[in-house]
């Protein structure tokens, strides 16, 4: 029921005419996927976590929420790593945690974040990791397994550099 309601809310933000009683997309509920288009607008589509990680690239995952001032500060570090390593074998994925989709979309635009995000519906993604507060940054290997966790500040770039420059 909650997943259907979230799906409907996400659809309304995307400008569709979904209703709360509409079923999730075929194949089960997909997490809302937020990206920034070429004109700088935050766009809502859908994806699955498994389609974003473990695909032969290192993935830096940034768990955050729009209400967290610490997350806003850490977003700048993650954005810098994204800009430096995006074309060098690194995928960066933000995961909004315990946040409203509209608030997440506003924060992405306001904070100037350019990497894609998944809205963690019902904490489906977060429960795979052991953390109790945001921000939380983890580096996953090409196989999707954790290489380094609980990264902050300069440690983010350091962990990425160690792995990609091996």
Question: How would you briefly describe this protein structure?
Answer:
The protein has one domain (30-164): Glutaredoxin.
Explain what the structure shows.
It is built from four helices and seven strands, in the order αβββαβαβββα. Helix 2 (about 70-85) packs parallel to helix 4 (about 155-165). Helix 2 (about 70-85) links the parallel strand 3 (about 60-65) and strand 4 (about 90-95). The chain has helices at about 1-15, 70-85, 100-110, 155-165; strands spanning about 30-35, 40-45, 60-65, 90-95, 115-120, 135-140, 145-150. Helix content is about 30%, strand content about 20%. It has a single domain, classed as Glutaredoxin (3-Layer(aba) Sandwich), CATH 3.40.30. With about 170 residues, the protein is an alpha/beta fold.
What keyword list fits this structure?
alpha/beta; single chain; globular; seven-stranded mixed β-sheet; 166 residues; disordered N terminus; Glutaredoxin
At the fold tier of CATH, the topology name is Glutaredoxin
Structural class: alpha/beta
Number of strands: 7
Give the low-pLDDT segments.
1-29
Our count of helices gives: 4
In CATH, what is the class?
A: Alpha Beta
Q: Main sheet, how many strands, which sense, barrel?
A: 7 strands, mixed
Q: Please, what is the CATH homologous superfamily? A: Glutaredoxin
| Total count of domains | 1
| Shape call | globular
Q: What's the order of the H and E elements?
A: HEEEHEHEEEH
Query: End-to-end distance, in Å?
Result: 46 Å
Give the DSSP E fraction (strand runs of 2 or more residues). Answer: 15-25%
If strands are numbered along the chain, what order do they take across the biggest sheet?
A: 2-1-5-4-3-6-7
Q: Return Rg in Å.
A: 15 Å
- Tell me roughly what share of residues is in helical segments: 25-40%
Residue-averaged pLDDT, rounded? 79
What CATH architecture would you give?
A: 3-Layer(aba) Sandwich
């Amino acid at each position: 029921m909650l997943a259907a309601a979230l799906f409907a809310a996400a659809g309304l933000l995307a400008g569709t005419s979904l209703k709360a009683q509409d079923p999730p997309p075929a194949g089960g509920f997909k997490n809302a996927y937020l990206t920034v288009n070429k004109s700088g607008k935050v766009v809502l589509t859908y994806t699955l976590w498994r389609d974003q990680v473990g695909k032969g690239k290192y993935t830096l995952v940034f768990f955050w929420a729009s209400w967290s001032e610490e997350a806003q500060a850490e977003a700048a570090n993650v954005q810098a790593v994204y800009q430096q390593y995006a074309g060098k074998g690194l995928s960066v994925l933000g995961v909004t945690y315990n946040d409203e989709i509209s608030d997440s979309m506003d924060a992405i635009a306001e904070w100037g974040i350019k990497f894609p995000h998944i809205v963690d519906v019902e904490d489906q993604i977060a429960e795979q990791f052991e953390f109790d507060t945001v921000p939380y940054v983890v580096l996953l290997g090409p196989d999707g397994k954790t290489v380094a966790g609980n990264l902050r500040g300069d440690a983010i770039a350091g962990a990425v550099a160690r792995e990609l420059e091996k």
